[in-house]
Recover the amino acids of this structure.
């Protein structure tokens, strides 16, 4: 499994290449739903648009609904240590980094499910 991506778009394009992009979208929708956070996008959304949508939603959560943001991190299963290691100066940069962390974790879930058939 390739997991050393440099950015969100690279990860999403790899998901498309491995024919797991739709599964990734479904996993993202599922986990946001479990966290009671509304996130609506078409199933054929382009990777760059998805990244922008996620980054904007995370930014909104950080600024306006911090408890829901923390719940999302818990549902997606982002280690607290990884969030603490973000060396960003403002909420925009933090939201971009957290978006990447979420995408990496969701990618792992989808990839492992395909590999080990659950």
């Amino acid at each position: 499994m390739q997991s050393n991506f440099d950015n969100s778009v690279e990860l999403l394009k790899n998901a498309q290449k491995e024919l797991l992009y739709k599964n990734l979208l479904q996993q993202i929708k599922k986990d946001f739903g479990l966290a009671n956070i509304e996130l609506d996008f078409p199933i054929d959304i382009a990777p760059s648009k998805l990244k922008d949508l996620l980054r904007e939603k995370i930014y909104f959560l950080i600024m306006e609904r911090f408890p829901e943001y923390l719940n999302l991190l818990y549902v997606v299963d982002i280690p607290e240590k990884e969030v603490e290691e973000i060396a960003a100066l403002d909420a925009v940069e933090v939201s971009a980094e957290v978006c990447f962390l979420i995408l990496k974790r969701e990618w792992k879930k989808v990839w492992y499910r395909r590999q080990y058939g659950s």
The mean pLDDT is 93. The chain has one domain: 8-116.
